[in-house]
Amino acid sequence: MPQPTHRPLFTTTGETLVIADFTPRPPRAPGPYRRLFTHPGTRAFTAGNLLARLPMGMFSVSAVVMIAGTRGSYALAGAVTATGLAATAVLAPFTARLIDRHGQARVAVPATLLAALGSLALLLCVRYDAPVWTLFAAYAATATTPNIGGMSRARWAHLLKGDDTSLHTANSFEQAADELCFMLGPVLAALLCGTLFPEAGTLVAAALLVTGMLLFTAQRATEPPVQEQTRTKAPLRAPGMPPLLLCCLAMGAVFGSMEVVTIAFADARGHASAAGVVLGLQAAGSCAAGLAFGALKPHGRPETRQPWCLAAMTALLTLPLLTAATTGSLLLLAGALLIAGMATAPTMVTTMTLVQDRTPTGRLNEGMTLAVTGLLGGIAAGSAAGGWITEHLSATAAYGVPLTAASLALMISLTATP
């Protein structure tokens, strides 16, 4: 029942009467995220998307714990996961191209089942002490996993075509979901492997991946229609794409080096187990900033916004370096990473918007996957660089690696001409 409001009425004798006005107030306009999910089918495909995306943060941690726990070698575990990362960088663009040509459901489901079989094969090879080479072969098979984030963004781009403001909100939500899943995934994997049995993380991750992908692809009403393939330029050759992918490579180096350096910094102070929480705070800062960024109406073109976002990322990445160098406190470093992480999501949202704008028609999944491949390559390079500086100098000095990588991304963005 509407609440009454009171208004005065004046009589001819000058007396004041107050009566209740029961006129209902107009309903408050829904917020940007609530408005986003009023489109039919969006909640269902988002639920499947989140279920399938959570394992992305679980597989590598689960594999490391499983292999190192049974074979007693972190070097072997790292080599196996690195092989899977390299295989993904090679195969992912081809999987995405098939999705663009034949549709999400027709390609993503069999590709996901093959990846899940690879995970189960790895589990069995570890469990039954198979030869070392079988671990590499099994984990390489997981490279067929489709880019679920790219497919979800492609659905939003199809549903919100012509509505740039809502698409900006959708991209911000997707980036926040990325951060949330990569924050919760490793924690869940470590909990499962530690409390149940070493293979539990891999087993649960495979089940979530298949279940989520089946739910996601079952929402056929929101699936982008397959467009007739024309002789368009490959996304890699589209105007403005090469420097954009170089930016992704540099940003990946920020993420990869930050993870390795933070783990080493915490370990050097006898708090290795706290490294996951500290890195989780960085992801939490990015997640919160992404949601806030999506609620704002974007101003100006994304080409103009990207250098500003990268400049903010570069400036904020000085905080972990200064904190580590001047205080050596893991607690203060956690606060610095929380603040530094707030530049990540706006930068990634703007970058992915540019990828969507510059990718040729009908090849959006391929373009988005190329960006993710650039990020993966950067993560691998950043991890190697951060580890080398840590070993030869110190973990404190190695915080200069993500700062340098962000500065490089900023220079690329400033000099690029689409």
From TrEMBL:
Transmembrane segments: 50-68, 74-95, 107-124, 130-149, 243-266, 272-296, 308-325, 331-355, 367-390, 396-416
Entry keywords, A to Z: Membrane, Transmembrane, Transmembrane helix
Record carries keyword Transmembrane: yes
One GO MF term: transmembrane transporter activity
Record-given protein name: MFS transporter
Organism: Streptomyces aquilus
